[in-house]
Queue: 4 jobs
Job 1
Amino acid sequence: MLQKLFTAILLIVLSISQLQAQELMGLTQMRDNVKSKRVSSYDRSGGNNDRFENIPDGEKRTVFDVKGAGIINHIWITIAPGPDHLNRNDIIIRMYWDGNQYPSVESPIGPFFGQGWNESYNYASLPLAAGPVDGSGLVSYFAMPFAKGARIEIENQTGRKIDAFYYYVDYVEMPSLPKGTGRFHAWYNRELTEALPNGENEWGTLGPQGENKSGKNNYLIADIKGKGHFVGVNYYVHSPTPMWYGEGDDMIFIDGAAEPTLNGTGTEDYFNTAWCPKDVYAHPYYGYARVNNDIGWLGRTHVYRFHIADPLYFNKSMKFTIEHGHDNALTLDLASVAYWYQSEAARIPAIPGKDERKFMPFIGPVEMHKWRHEWRKNKGGDSKLWGN
């Protein structure tokens, strides 16, 4: 066990060292007419009240509004009170580029920064992180360019006031963007998926399995129109069954293809892991930030992959889907935030509303015992029924 842990840590350190070497080389390059700027929640009076306070339920608050050209290169946010009193899944963050009245980024703030459901846990990747204490420092290093201004707002949909909202938005101001600079996009989706009509026939437990070549009824991670490249996803799975949820393949359709352009071999395979993992693991490009501690794969899992060295390119469109179990056999509570760049700031689909984002309850020993009780009655109620 210690050897495995040491090997994993060594691989992460080597990967980070390579990335740091590339970044340090970039720091040697001098840039003309570029100036670092910041918008933050600091106390304008010079005092120590460095925050927005008492943001009422239903109110929107602008945290960044800058004209001209530039690139946001760092965001840090922390919020009070904690998730036990204030639902991060019901604080919405939106980003508007180049004077558009529609957002190109829209997501609940927790899932955007890698905090699933309304939980708080440490999370580390190259572009996004949630740092100590217990994931309360929300961080982005995604580059977010704009040519004619940028605006970031939050909306409180929690049903109570936000006591305190602290933030930094760091950016570089420049005369104009380099030619061909894309615009950052992010979109949140959530769906309670439907099982097959004849039951949740995963691993052939209920009989012969079907086939899925077309991607019909797959879960939708992104449906993009335009030219660009896809750079990653945070994927949140809540499973109501101990059965492995990850036999579902990723199926990615590029430039209007009728059949998948990129067809995967399983959920954990797309996320660079193998054999139904339940290990917390952090690589700059992929990992498991939260795993279930329940029976089998019952419960909640957060897995992520970022296409930093291997973006997925498209010229006209890209539709990214994934099965929920093989042949879409399983009922799962799925949510995701997809991240990509496009040649221009595009309108993204509306995200699910507050009622559609409600979490499904946990299933535990009491529920299982009640199901066993009903099964015993169905089998005649013999006092020595075992269950196999």
Note: The domain at 182-204+211-380 is CATH 2.60.120.1390 (Jelly Rolls).
Job 2
Amino acid sequence: MLELTASHIDSLAPNAAAAKNGRGLVLKNKFVKLNVSEEGDLIFGECSGSGKSNYICSVDFVTPENPVSRCNCPSRQFPCKHALGLMYAYADGLTFEKATVPEDISSKREKAGKREETKAKRESGELPPAKPKKVNKTALKKKIVQQLEALDELEKIVLSLVRGGLGTANARTVKDLNDHAKRLGSSYLTGAENELRRLALLLEQDDRESGYTYATEQLTLLNAFIKKGRSYLQTKQEDPELVPDSESTIEEWLGHAWQLAELKEAGRVSESVELLQLAFYTYRDEARKEFVDTGFWLQLGEGKIHRTVQYRPFKAVKYMKEEDSFFSVAQISELYRYPGGMNARVRFEGMIPRQVNNADYDGIRAAAAASIPDAVKAVKNQLKDPLADRAPVVLLNAARIAQTENGTFALVDEAGNTLELGNVYRLPQPTTPLLSLVDPSLLENCAVLAMFEHQMDMGKLVAQPLTLIQGERIARLLY
């Protein structure tokens, strides 16, 4: 029997407005027909609208981890509000009459089944694999030459800023940086384009001291990319059929968008994985001109903290699915891992939710680092690579979180080692002050998910708490 919960349906909704509108259809009794298949893997029905004809909608759960919604309404969102309303109606226990699967859906199921069968046969070797795409060596060499020339131009700009000093930067400098960023994008260096725009934003900040501190770090980042990118491209120029580097982030810096098939071929896929989301937030990335939905997930049984990232361009935001907080365990058949460090980006195409149980809470505590020095050492090792993520996230065990005489907070482990808690520049909002507002018992014998950052102006490593976990209680400080 099909099991649906409101939280699962919320996670399928493209955005909060669509979920609200779908719920509204149920509350207003807009559904004039509600049906479920004999097997219980398809719900379908009719919903009255503003026109004479009803909207015909369905949600197919023949593949439970990846339900397919269909509707004849003109909405460009999937699932639309009618499909969402249909699911909310089922979750609320409304009466669904059993009926035969409509012929058009049976036909679509059959075609989808044949595609999956062919795919399975190719993977098992019963059918020859699909022919690999041939590399257009002439086009690739032309692209590499263009990228190398763009790197040379970028190097001139970086050196000019370093020699002149950041204090000489003005409005004209910012304009030149943004203009050059566009040219980098045209030369297939989208990663460098975004980071050069980020440098321009830092130089026009009102808080000059803070802006210059992170601008210096940004210049170091760009310089490291120029050197590594040039070396990598020259090697690729000599061997156009060179396999993409699946261990570092250099390919993404050079504008490569990883396909799931490429990640699978590189061995960056895990099967039968369970993830528990510990933190989630959304922020505006002005450099990328996108909203970024970011989630941090614990891989149960492995203890790794992964990161999911969803980019929604400002211009297309209303047409794209908006991610949200997720409070169940996600059961995933295939988890794809992008190249990266401690919190490698992951992606999955579908999942089946289940309720969090006691063993999962025990798993959180078992996965947390017991020693602050060990956790700090791992963070520092990552920060030695200038192209690595500058704000790694770690799960730590804390004997307590104490407040110092000057009002700041510190995490204390079982051995008495301490870690100063503060606010990280890269997060959209502070959370450390919220520690004084939570239940004091949450600050004793707990696990803490924290984001680290090296603050160059202060010469120290600071961690900002994202989530507190104690027993069966999870308090998310970021939203």
Note: The longest strand covers residues 269-285.
Job 3
Amino acid sequence: MSNTVEADDQQAGGPPTRPFAPFEWMIAGRYLRSRRRETFISVIAGFSFAGIMLGVATLIIVMAVMNGFRSELLGKILGINGHMLVQPVDTALTDYDAVAVRLEGVPDVVSAIPFVEGQALVSGPAGSLGALVRGVHESDLRRVPLISGNVRNGTLDGFDEGEGIAVGSRMAQQLGVTVGDSITIVSPNGNVTPMGVTPRVKAYPISAIFEIGMSEYDSTFVFMPLTEAQGYFNMDGRATGIEIYVVDPDKVGLMKSAIEEGAGRPAFITDWRQRNTTFFSALEVERNVMFIILTLIVLVAALNIISGLIMLVKDKGRDIAILRTMGATRGAVMRIFLITGASIGCVGTIAGFLLGLVVCLNIESIRQFISWLTSTQLFDPTLYFLSKLPADIDSGETVMVLVMALVLSLLATLYPAWRAARLDPVEALRYE
């Protein structure tokens, strides 16, 4: 397009103009400043600027929050469930200690933790709820930072020696108990009698209360000593499985054969991707759909640039004709309107980036302020699993958003600038 314009200039005998000369920037700047007669055009330019700024900021904020959700949920889920799970096949897992030692010798394996697990009903003074009871050694529980590093009340000292249990903060709150109080655990798989199977009921004192920060886990998990869990669930000398924590969770697929060989016995091995595939696939689909929807905001703002520039070209037809008669080339006129439209897009994109960055860095404080202002719970942890609103800015995605906004803004200026360059000075001045 620009080659055609410059060729027309040469045919017309116009003097050559250095691209993006100072006078082009000066005229573009004057077109951006409003006058009384041009207020409507300036309003359109203002809306275009605001649209691009809000579109870019919204894209950055939403993508950061979605990334934060994924990383936080991934950290919480893998922090308590492990990256790989080894379960016995054909024979019971009675040699769990020996298997765990062999698995920890596999390269890139951080820890291998045997456990006993079962579902039960827990009850306290304030009510009852379902729970997932997991029995582990004290030494293994301390190797799970999500638990050992988030004990809010009590202690894990002497966990193996006593009958004390560790429960989540939300469970303790719902049951109305604290450290030192006892809760009753009821399992449907109890003793076999001539009258049938009777539920097993036993009271346990609470020795520690932890808070992971994920409401579902804080209200569901109960940890007890491994030997006590074996006796309670009728699994004397056996384990339900072995959880494996590795250096890089994204490489669990490459480690499966090494884990099978390290186990040294028939075993069924699953990883975190197989156990949570539906959940994380839904998150990824939602993230991609939100990106597409919010991109339309930037596109609408770019269309506003087109309409604003077309109206500006119509309004400045006489000025363009005078510039042409004074020696300005068609290329110079085109660049003037390119600068005018691109300035709106570039400044709006930069402002949107800064706004999005500020919001992401202070998103939890903003959430708390809005909740206080409206007297509502803006981010219910029982619905969103997490106790606070996360935001994780990905530099690659942010750069992609900025480039997309700049490209759309530049493309929006091409047609109006081309129309301005093609304006015939004679026709424009004929009725002046």
Note: Residues 4-14 have pLDDT under 50 and may be disordered.
Job 4
Amino acid sequence: MPSAETTRASVHEPDVVRPTREDEVAAAGSELIGGPIGRRALLGTSWWTPVRVVALVAIGLFALGMVQKLPCYDSGWFFGASSQYTHACYSDIPHLYQGRGFADGLVPYFDKLPGDMNYLEYPVLTGVFMEVASWLTPSSGDIQSREQIYWMVNAGMLLVCAVVIAVCTARIHRRRPWDGLLVALAPAFALTATINWDLLAVALLAAAMLMWSRGRALAFGILVGLATAAKFYPFLVLGPLLVLCWRAGKWREFSTAVLGAVGAWLVVNVPVMFLAPQGWSKFYSFSKERGVDFGSIFLFVSRWLNIDIPAQTANAWAMFLMVAACAGIAAITLTAPRRPRFAQLVFLIVAVFILTNKVYSPQYVLWLVPLAALARPRWRDFLIWQACEVGYFLGIWMYLAYTSSGDAHKGLPSDGYQVAIAVHLLGTLYLCAVVVRDILMPERDMVRRAGDDDPSGGVLDGAEDVFVLGAAAHPPRHAAAFEGPHVEWGSRDVEPAEGSSP
């Protein structure tokens, strides 16, 4: 007989969707741990809740990613340029410890650096993160050991960010906590987590989206502002939110979010902006003046057509393509038969920004991993995209090994690297295509097939439309009016899951 505690847990907690009952890939993968859970499993009967499992898996995969960097930690970062590429274990972190003055005690944005860079080329909050890590790194000893410790300190801080990302992703959709495993088990996430400091902005944005899903518009805005102070791309989420709130008439919540974002960004940036204007502006001037670089569609086109694309031309085309894509996303949002989910549009806008950027560093995949898990929680599509990203991860390091190995030419030649870029672009476009298909055909959306509307939408979840265009303007007008069948994979329908395990 179930205990009173178990009964209370089963009454007050929502039914948890088990991926092993709706996703054939998840079901097949679960055979490694004994197969799908039985139908009588109840939520709250064990310490092993979905969120705790997701957090522990994220820690384990992050640790494996650190182990993958071991050849570089031992010697690759310090002796010979090509070995850190042939082992695919490169990281900016140890190199910038000395290269950006942290080893010499220079203060970011205020102290001028020797060489051509002049000042640190990162947003302010990321610079603070880097500086705090340098405070925790011993100032004595040989430079190699100090760089190793600096990387290890940063890895520990980034691990906290990784757990925050996985946990927030698991908690955004109350009935789908197991989707957090998509983040925790993403191979590209583990491989790229300690290349740079991107996880700080990703964690802040994940926490922001959790706050929005709980209806806390001000907290959402503040966290978006802080994320934008750490990396440029998070402010893009306000665009999809504008169109969604326009369609639903949620102007007060949108205004609150924008004010919170602007205020938080100003609090972080204004002191440095006024006290060290040249250092503060370096990130923005560097981004504008930077030429076509690794992984971008512009590099692919320039090498394919054997032409040179100046930075100004690339900037103009990137802006044009971004604006055109934003207009297309807005049109889809206002004309879709059912208002798109917030996570779907955030994924699309960030993916478009990546695809139209002048550079694609391998760690940029981190921006998309939690968004992809929320937008399209289907293991097959997610793993197809991840395979493409892992291919690019290996491709860029093998190409750099080829260019740095002199006459030995060990690695991937230019034509092979072109293929790696194409694989990355096509993989991201594929995931964008299936998300757009889900928006235009909401009955194919796995989240809505399970009976939900927009778990990441906060005040938008189940809200009535007040402004729509095209066929969407005709009744039924209520976002929750669509009651599509809960069709599981296979030949029979399955009820929403009762248990807490996948």
Note: Residues 58 and 184 are 4 Å apart (CA to CA).
